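Ticket #560: bound-state structure for glutamic acid.
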Amino acid sequence: MDHNMLAEMLFPHIQDTPADIEARYPARKLAEGAKVTRFAPSPTGFVHFGGLFPSTVAERLPHQSGGVFYLRIEDTDAKREVEGAAEGLIKTLATYGIRFDEGAILDEEGKISDKGDYGPYKQSMRGPIYQTYAKQLVREGKAYPCFTTEEELDELQQVNKKEEIKNTDWQVEAEKRREEMLARRQFTMEEVKAHLDAGHPFVIRILAEGDAEKKVKFTDLVKGALEFPENDEDFVLLKSDGIPTYHFAHAVDDHLMGTTHVIRGEEWLPSLPKHVQLFSYLGFKLPKYMHIAQIMRLDENGNKKKLSKRDMGANMDDYTRMGYSPEAVCEYVMTLLNSNYEEWHAKNIDKPYTDFPFNIKKMSVSGCLFDFNKLDDVSKNILSRMTAEQVYEKLVAWATLFDPDFAKVLTADREKALTILSIGRGGKKPRKDLCTWADAKPYMGFFYDEYFEIVDPYADFDRETIALVMKKFLETYDPKDEMSAWFDKIKAIASELGFAADMKAYKQNPTAYRGNVADVSSFIRVAVTGKQNAPDLYTVMQILGEETTRARVTKAMMAL
Ligand code: GLU
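RESOLUTION: The complex was predicted; output attached.
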């Protein structure tokens, strides 16, 4: 067989050689140890939490080592492509601090364009490049055309499936498949010519010389030492439209684009034998691989399950809608990614997560468990440490999109909102009322007449007593009082009505009193805030002002 002639017959339009292409993709000039990584999503939908995970690793490593992080759009499967998905992915990733130095970017008009010298960064634009390498492999006798049509392949598979059911002897089955493959490899130049003349479509397959009996030793930077059989499957490199399969595009692109570390989900681990073989056939240096464990969740029965696309918490855009601050999500991702992150964070409470020395060795080998409670915890802490101004800006930005009426209320009086948001902020033990921006209205809405309503019941006392407390409060209330004077007045009302003014005294002899001062202030609290749980009542009244405070207590008293 004249492989040169075969290559020319199959790819007459390809005149470049791999050497010509290599010249256009010179080695990157980076310092020793600088890592080059990429995120390579297929534009088939939204960013999944399980995708943010590897992309965070892929972002951290180069940015910690003076390297390059780039975005490549893997759009080789036109059937699965979703319109606008690539643009959406870029925007969502940017929200979560995934900044690319190079690759597919959004231009000013919101269209995808290239930034950097190693493009095009959209695989559908790279057809001739893949075809050049495929031609070379054919020329070297390492790949061959296969004219079996998709229908024939489907048929073959059907037969195989039937066989599989009957045939439990896998050795025999595997041998049979191999023979089929080998039969497909044997063809004459005349046959090829006849097919081409007839315009029959063909795919290019690798001529796999691996021996499945032989094992390849391999070290994955996350999974550790691995061993797998050599690849003996003649897998497809180029589909009949000249577009590569994932395997082939991965080898060609990661080589040309100078990727040092391939960071991807562990679902690609079974394909590794193919990739190792392909890099070797192509004469490329194998990059380092990091296969990231999948994210798991607990199902209703407490069993671990893969976090699937449809699960709550999978779609990153949901976090935005739910009002999670991206900082909180990023921080949570870090706690999942590196086992020592929390310890570091506790010691470096004011530092951003990007200061953390991310360490590959501290990554979990098996699946991490996704847990909303933990995320909420992290989120409350993050929000509690923000300044009132930061909270205000982020809250208004969120509300503008998801609760425009609330945004209007907040922006109508910025100073008032800032005063409210300052309550309990800044000290050693800040209040942790907010977990998401959606919590803000239920927490602080009562400060605004448009949202105020009595939602909690009063403590269990007779109406006359509660009304009497309110009456006495209105008689003595003076907004000019300092906090201690204000509280002394509440205590005085308590004593006068047979409630203990002093908690210690009450605890020693509870039956001697009708209740205590906390009950008394709770009546006023419900009247003024509508809730049993609210920030410090004195502060609340200072913010509301005399008129509103009096109006609310009066109205509550009348309604009893
Ligand atoms: N396009 C592949 C995916 O979305 C990329 C895997 C990789 O990073 O190599 O799963």
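RESOLUTION NOTES: The chain has a mean pLDDT of 93.
TICKET STATUS: resolved
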